[in-house]
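Notebook p. 47: complex prediction with heme C.
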Amino acid sequence: MTGQPSASLQVKPGRACRSAVSGLLAFVAAALAAAPLPAQVHEGVASCGGATCHGRQAATGAAVRQNELSTWQDPASPAGAHSRAFRVLLAPESARMARRLALGAAEEAPMCLSCHSDYVPAARRGARFRLEDGVGCEACHGGSGARPGGAPGWLASHAAVGNSHAANVAAGLFPATDLIARANMCLDCHFGSIRPGQFVTHRIMAAGHPRLTFELDLFTALQAHHDEDADYRARKPAHGALKAWAVGQALASARQLRLFAQRGTDGALPEFSFFDCRTCHRTFTDQRGLKPLSRAGQWRPLPAGFPAFADENLILLDAAARVLAAAEAGEVRQRSAAFHRAFAESRPAAEAAALALAESAERVARRVAGARLEPGAALRIVAAITEPQHLQRVSEYQGGAQTLMAVETLVSAAVSSGLVSEARARGLRPALDEAHALLKDANRWDEEAFARAMIRLGAAARTML
Ligand code: HEC
Ligand code: HEC
Ligand code: HEC
Ligand code: HEC
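Predicted complex, structure tokens below:
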């Protein structure tokens, strides 16, 4: 068992559950009215975490586990990170960041709260809502309280006997089962959005904020408080790891490109966070044989000496499209090259090319989300991203990190689909560990050693095809 609920979560047992049933009639009326999806009131974690609702000590629920609160609060693992998100704003490193940015208190700054809490406007905070709860249930599942016009939200009805997921979504539950909707929701905080303050700029990183990395399937698994078992599949769609990885990858690319077009400048300068960090953060040298850091090639036609767009997501999008979305793959490749070319040309040309490529990436996401994927595709993507030709594109550390995360996710997808045995997957461990060791320190990134390790890994993975 994990930690006790915090003081804010000591709720009267069963209160929400009882009101849930009594709200059923009102819910039916609301569903019939079929109001457009609204901005609901957020009732706070305390409204979900009652001992007879989602606050059980153990996962003993008949349908859902009902101990989701304790998973969300787990002090010992990444699963509990969202419950800590506000608290880290009180830590010394946040205070230092806020000082460098001249923000005042980090825990009061919209620039931090927009991602480290469920930052809805005051008018949409219910009686038991507390900003201090961090990224609470409703940050992902949607506000559960009343909708504009007073129609009751899904809190009142979702636990009623005979209720369906579709009815909950109609009452305003966020459709987190839909991979496209889920990816975009996670990316709002794990990549950034166009909303005010919801973006980690280079200035915030220079003040000490860690770089953000995100991979939809891995991160969903790390925070999961649900099982995709037979009962779940009877109620909701289940997707599998391969699909989640590919949709997440395509939409991360689309998000980065759209944000580049929307928030690509800071003052008189470009926003540095869109560039590969090492194009600027490198050590000076007068060595004669110095290799340029940002490599150009057919895939990235840049003039020598021009900083490169951080293209780690685009590299994987290309591989995913080739294997899973053949109809879109040519367009992705061509628009990707056109974007890099335009990047060195002019701001307006680069923005237009970014938006065109974002559209292609979104098409790939929709194609993959709607397709029946055959399990072997996971290993074919592993083969594609460990080809020497592909690895030429991975000239930067972040590209290496994303590539290795992809291999691990895809191999575990092949295991969970029954294609590869656990024992055979364990055979890849030494090669994976070697690649991890090469990513330990961004300052010692050695692209050639990484490529060699990945080629060996690819050879081992190909024997499983
Ligand atoms: C776009 C969303 C976003 C914004 C804006 C943002 N953060 Fe973060 N922050 C994150 C995410 C996501 C992580 C987790 C990074 C990871 O593990 O991948 C994080 C991590 C952190 C960490 C490290 C936490 C730990 O457990 O080690 C600190 C400290 C932090 N943020 C403070 C701040 C402060 C202070 C601000 C405001 C100046 C801020 N953040 C703004 C999303 C954001
Ligand atoms: C970071 C986002 C996030 C947060 C925060 C979050 N959830 Fe979830 N939750 C998900 C996702 C993603 C799923 C899987 C998709 C689905 O079934 O909707 C899920 C699934 C669930 C399910 C469905 C299980 C099933 O078998 O149908 C329940 C119940 C649930 N969450 C309750 C909670 C509660 C209670 C909290 C707060 C203590 C919470 N969640 C916080 C993202 C989140
Ligand atoms: C409202 C903003 C927000 C949303 C939405 C959100 N997250 Fe987070 N997430 C954060 C912040 C902030 C952190 C870092 C908290 C900390 O370390 O203290 C974090 C941390 C995590 C971690 C722990 C990472 C680590 O390195 O320990 C995982 C896993 C995670 N999020 C998964 C998800 C998934 C999956 C989704 C979508 C279903 C999601 N998050 C949606 C803000 C958000
Ligand atoms: C276009 C050039 C450029 C790029 C690209 C760039 N930076 Fe910087 N960075 C700078 C400059 C210039 C400073 C110093 C600002 C100052 O003097 O305070 C800086 C400062 C920093 C600092 C503060 C420590 C220091 O060395 O002063 C950190 C941390 C940082 N950058 C992280 C990053 C990360 C992470 C990335 C990639 C996402 C990145 N930077 C990309 C130019 C760049």
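Notes: Residues 78, 81-82, 84-85, 88, 115-116, 135, 139-140, 182, 185-186, 188-190, 219-220, 222-223 surround heme C (ligand 3) (CB under 6 Å). Confidence is low (pLDDT under 50) at residues 1-37.
Next step: compare against the earlier run before touching the bench.
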